[in-house]
Amino acid sequence: MKRHPGQVMTRAALAMLVLGPVAAGAVSQKLRYRFEAVSNPVTTVVDDSNKGHTGTVQTANGGAVVPVTGYDGQGVQFPAVCTGTGCPHANLSAADAADLNPGTALFTFGVRVRLTLADLTTDHGSNLVQKGLSTTAQWKLQLDDAVAGKPSCVVRTTGGAQAIIVKSSVGVADGTWHKVSCQRTSTTLTILVDNIARGSALIDSTYDISPVGQPVGIGAKSTGNNNDQFHGAIDDVYFNID
What we know:
Number of domains: 1
CATH topology: Jelly Rolls
Radius of gyration: 19 Å
Strand content: 35-45%
CATH class: Mainly Beta
Helix content: under 10%
Order of helices and strands: HEEEEEEEEEEEEEEEE
Number of helices: 1
Shape: globular
Structural class: mainly beta
Largest sheet: 8 strands, antiparallel
Number of strands: 16
């Protein structure tokens, strides 16, 4: 870009020079929890996307969500493994909102996660983040493999019909932080571990994912029995429309 003497280059012009034109359909962040300003135990979590989706911790049987050293800064820890009745339960919940119901839009959502094989159980799955249930429309990221801790992405259309499930070919239960995400493109649903695609399935462009009326649940779907409690640590939860 040629400049005449005394001409000042604007920030926008500099961005164009360095980055090129801004692409259409840029990512729009709808929810993000970085957990940098939470109490101990955690009660509420600020939505760092500035969309106002404040998270609220719900607990039962003495369960709690507590801050721990995260992937970057601070993360949160969910209740330890427990079997039988009366186990501690806890989840982080955000209320239903229209911008968290993607419909047929392209999206990416995910978390940073840390757990060991000892944090897995054989009697229930472990829910990382979800909106909707198995009987409704749903988007969900879970850990259902107690042997290797392989995560999977699940989406369902209206009424819980025609579920599409994509399981990772690798596990994450090794005591280190991993980024796990689910991405919908125009043709596929893909699960990524540490930004590497580890499984995919075809998805039609008309497949509608609209869990209207359902809250977002992190760490478990509820605090009741059979809540699919996650027992590890989580950091940087996000949901983006691509």
